[in-house]
């Protein structure tokens, strides 16, 4: 039986394994680069689909978002009103006030975004009046929350009824 030397039998096997590992690593790098590139293009495609090509549409989109935020404010007010009416625990009322404050800040933020979109496009008088109305509503909600945190539940309820009448 012929003698096998270490360099003739083991070294080629080790080199073959190293080459396979290197090949797999290179394949992994290529796959990662390809996936990263595919992910980036899909973000741009989704944004292109979401934003219509009409130059006045960002204003329309922002005003619609502000209207939805106004609806959330109204829902938060109604929920707080119901909890105050049934004499809910203080923790529940506090959570409702937090929810209402968050909705008020969201309305304020979305109204500001709509104002910025209106400044860069031709806004109608009707849109300007609607944005004024939404700004006044967000200010009223945030003022109510600031005062309600210091007031007793009975006073909170009376002020909330007045706010709900103004909102509806």
Describe what you observe in this structure:
- The chain has 5 helices and no strands.
- The chain has helices at residues 6-50, 57-85, 90-119, 125-148, 153-167.
- 85% of the residues lie in helices and 0% in strands.
- With 168 residues, the protein is mainly alpha-helical.
Low-confidence stretches: none
Task: Decide which structural class fits the backbone.
Answer: mainly alpha
- Total strand segments: 0
Helix-strand topology string? HHHHH
Strand content: under 5%
Rounded average pLDDT = 80
Cα distance, first to last residue? 100 Å
The largest sheet is:
none
Overall, the morphology is: flat
Task: Explain briefly what this protein structure is.
By secondary structure, the chain is an all-alpha fold.
Topology, pairings included?
Layout: H1 6-50, H2 57-85, H3 90-119, H4 125-148, H5 153-167
Keywords:
mainly alpha, 168 residues
């Amino acid at each position: 039986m012929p003698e096998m030397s270490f360099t003739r039998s083991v070294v080629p096997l080790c080199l073959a394994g190293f080459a396979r590992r290197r090949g797999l690593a290179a394949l992994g790098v290529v796959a990662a680069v390809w996936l990263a590139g595919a992910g980036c293009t899909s973000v741009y495609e989704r944004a292109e689909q979401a934003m219509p090509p009409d130059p006045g549409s960002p204003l329309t989109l922002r005003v619609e978002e502000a209207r939805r935020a106004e609806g959330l404010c109204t829902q938060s007010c109604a929920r707080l009103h119901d909890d105050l009416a049934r004499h809910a625990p203080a923790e529940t009322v506090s959570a409702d006030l937090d929810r209402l404050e968050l909705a008020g800040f969201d309305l304020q933020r979305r109204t500001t975004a709509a104002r910025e979109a209106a400044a860069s496009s031709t806004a109608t008088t009707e849109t300007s009046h609607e944005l004024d109305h939404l700004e006044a509503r967000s200010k009223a909600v945030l003022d109510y929350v600031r005062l309600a945190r210091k007031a007793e539940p009975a006073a909170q309820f009376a002020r909330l009824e007045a706010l709900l009448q103004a909102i509806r």
